[in-house]
Design goal:
- Chain B: This is Phosphatidylinositol N-acetylglucosaminyltransferase subunit H isoform X1.
- Chain B: GO terms for molecular function: glycosyltransferase activity.
- Chain B: It comes from Python bivittatus (Burmese python).
- Chain B: Keywords: Glycosyltransferase, Membrane, Transferase, Transmembrane, Transmembrane helix.
- The complex is a heterodimer of chains A (482) and B (184).
- Chain A is an alpha/beta fold.
- The longest helix of chain A is centred in the C-terminal third of the chain and has 24 residues.
- Chain A has an 8-stranded mixed beta sheet, sandwiched between helices. Chain A has a 6-stranded parallel beta sheet with strand order 13-12-11-14-15-16, with helices on both faces. A two-stranded antiparallel ribbon of chain A has the order 5-6.
- In chain B, strand 2 and strand 3 form a beta hairpin.
- In chain B, helix 1 packs antiparallel against helix 2.
- The longest helix of chain B is centred in the first third of the chain and has 22 residues.
- Chain B is elongated and about 75 Å long.
- The relative contact order of chain B is 0.16.
- The chains are: A alpha/beta (482), B alpha+beta (184).
């Protein structure tokens, strides 16, 4: 991106800024942080974590903080990009191993991450998602570099199978010396505290949000001669697609006017296609394939009932989006779902075909008798529940708290690792922490901090975009005054 | 009018930037990298020869020694002729275009000329380079078919890689000239 400084306008600009700043001194008294969001998952990949990072960053920028995002390269999307309002995104050329997650060696990403943290003068590193190895790496390096760390956990885990045992161990190691942890629901907090053996006091709950203006009801798009059940989710095991394949034939036999609309793509699509084939339901079960984010609303408004069959879910944005579009939600009672919506908006069932069928039948009978809430009423209610501005405000509080805390010095950190993570893992990771510390010293010798150019701020105090925004605002004010 | 100022490269090496203002519409910038140090040359030569001598002691074959001498000589010549750039210069003439010259240590010169009609803008960009994130100056070329699109990005000062303060200096000067052109 071009760096432009119009020489003669510079003074004029700074005088504008100083006048504007003096107008809103209480806002400036607030602490401005320089935040680095790290996750393997970001746009162009689609999903809940991705949109969470994007929306949260946008609202934090609006509140005057500097935010950058660090993720790995997606095909030809490498290097540095700027998104709306000057959100700077680093797409690092790291090798992707599995499921869009990079390989974790704890060392190979240190030189680049250190360079970025220093040139952007980062104060807080905020990592997202426990599936992302880059987030774990970044937390590890940030702590070695004595930066403050925050971690947001977006998913629930089990305790029993091998992969969860290993992930939980890794999580214990990364989180034992992290300053603060954010979970998306109380169930998720409980789960994380148990998994990582944490002190619950450093874990906050900040739910996800939806953009209510994106999800508005439109009753005219519905076909009122039939009943349409909408399912929008990735077609994977975790989302309970096997349950869905049991529900579809059972209910389709019972109700001849029932239609299913399934949006999403995944390995379990074949299961649904088999069911459709076997019971000759091509007319009534439509599989739409992968949906773009902006198409989701157009699919949702075509339905009367939204069905969510997830087997595990920390928060579930999909049901909030559906409720915001005015659909009656039928969902499994798993994870954080019971916390999300009030009782009259949602019908909760056990995760079994039988229970979900009876839940759907209840919704259908309510629909037929006309005792469902009106879509507009639901939308007006839901839009007040979860907004990104509120999420950003609460996250900011976490940042303020973290900024006043101290980072553990190396000796105490090693101590914490050994005492907290069990004798074997603790010692291994203490050794790794030592090695990464030595590696950092080596890097500091190779490229001293003062050889790294400070990047021009795009956002935050005196950011290039913020100044542009202020200038536009000033112009508008001037024209209205004239 | 000529002024010479010292700057640092991204790698930490000292470079000098010389700005020559030939006339109001013609400027030249020369970035000079440090010359090949006798120290590094002797270090590399010693290393190669010591390894070769070690191999000779093990294998008792004198071919190793003569081969190492040739390798050092050919390597040095190739390095001076193809790799080591002593000076990079950028000549910008308002009505004509931009000329980039890089002179190798052996005396070889490489010149590229871009016509002014093709030049859309000169900007400072960021890139991930090796294990670093660096700023670099580049020329944006206009797409001949679509006047608003960019067909190519030509990076400048590729081998010396000056730091941001030096780039800003050159950038401002270039913008002044481009600005003049836009006015006329």
């Amino acid at each position: 991106m071009a760096y432009r400084r119009e020489g003669n306008q510079e003074q004029l600009l700074s005088s504008i800024i100083s006048t504007v700043n003096s107008h809103k001194s209480p806002a400036c008294a607030r602490q401005a942080h320089r935040i680095c969001m790290v996750s393997d998952f970001f746009y162009p990949n689609m999903g809940g974590v991705e949109s969470h990072i994007y929306q949260l960053s946008q609202c934090l920028i609006e509140r005057g903080h500097k935010v950058i995002v660090v993720t790995h390269a997606y095909e030809d999307r490498k290097g540095i990009r700027y998104l709306t309002n000057g959100l700077k995104v680093y797409y690092l050329p790291l090798r992707v191993m599995y499921n869009q997650s990079t390989a974790t060696t704890l060392f190979h990403s240190l030189p680049l991450l250190r360079y970025i943290f220093i040139r952007e003068r980062i104060t807080i590193v905020h990592a997202h998602s426990s599936f992302s190895s880059m987030a774990h790496d970044a937390l590890f390096h940030a702590k070695t570099m004595q930066l403050r760390t925050v971690f947001t956990d977006h998913s629930l885990f089990g305790f029993a199978d091998v992969s969860s045992v290993l992930t939980n161990k890794l999580l214990t190691v990364t989180l034992c010396d992290t300053n603060h942890i954010i979970c998306v629901s109380y169930t998720s907090k409980e789960n994380t505290v148990l998994r990582a053996a944490l002190n619950p006091e450093i874990v906050s709950v900040i739910p996800n949000a939806v953009d209510p203006t994106d999800f508005t009801p439109d009753a005219s798009r519905r076909d009122n001669n039939t009943i349409t059940v909408v399912v929008v989710s990735r077609l994977v095991y975790r989302k309970g697609i096997d349950l869905l394949s049991g529900i579809i034939p059972e209910l389709c036999q019972k109700y001849p006017d029932l239609h299913f609309l399934v949006g999403g793509e995944g390995p379990k699509r074949i299961v649904l296609e088999e069911v459709r084939e076997r019971y000759q339901l091509h007319e009534r079960v439509r599989l739409l394939g992968a949906l773009e984010h902006q198409e989701v609303r157009n699919v949702l408004v075509q339905g009367h009932i939204f069905l969510n069959t997830s087997l595990t879910e920390a928060f579930c944005m999909a049901i909030v989006e559906a409720a915001s579009c005015g659909l009656q939600v039928v969902s499994t009672r798993v994870g954080g779902i019971p916390e999300v919506l009030p009782d009259d908006f949602i019908i909760l069932c056990e995760p079994s075909v039988k229970s979900l069928c009876s839940g759907l039948e209840k919704a259908i009978s309510q629909l037929k008798s006309g005792s469902l809430l009106s879509p507009e009423f639901m939308h007006d209610k839901v839009r007040t529940f979860y907004t990104w501005r509120n999420v950003a405000k609460r996250t900011e509080k976490v940042y303020n708290r973290v900024a006043s805390e101290t980072v553990l010095p190396m000796g105490k950190r090693l101590d914490r690792l050994i005492t907290h993570c069990g004798p074997v893992t603790g010692c291994i990771f203490a050794l790794l922490a030592m090695l990464s510390f030595l590696f950092l010293i080596f890097l500091k010798w190779l490229i001293p901090d003062d050889l790294i150019d400070t990047a021009i701020d795009a956002t935050g105090l005196n950011g290039a975009w913020t100044r542009k925004y202020l200038r536009n605002k000033k112009k508008k004010e001037n024209t209205t005054n004239c | 009018m000529a002024e010479e100022r010292g700057y640092l490269a991204v790698s930490g090496a000292r470079i000098t930037l010389q700005c020559l203002h030939h006339s109001a519409s013609c400027r030249e910038f020369q970035v000079r990298c440090p010359r090949l140090q006798l120290r590094s040359l002797s270090a590399v030569t010693c290393c190669v020869w010591l390894v070769a001598y070690g191999l000779f002691v093990v294998s008792q074959n004198s071919m190793v020694l003569s081969a190492s001498i040739f390798i050092t000589l050919i390597g040095l010549l190739a390095y001076l002729h193809f790799v080591k750039i002593d000076q990079e210069s950028l000549l910008i003439i308002d009505s004509l275009g931009i000329q980039m010259t890089s002179s190798y240590a052996s005396g070889k010169e490489n010149t590229t000329f871009i016509e002014m009609n093709q030049v859309k803008d000169v900007v400072i960009n960021e890139a991930i380079y090796m294990q670093k994130v660096i700023y670099y100056l580049c020329i944006l070329l206009r797409d001949p078919i679509e006047p608003h699109a960019i067909s190519e990005v030509v990076p400048l000062f590729q081998s010396s890689k000056p730091r941001l303060d030096c780039l800003v200096e050159v950038y401002k000067s270039c913008q002044e000239i481009l600005e003049q052109r836009k006015k006329s």
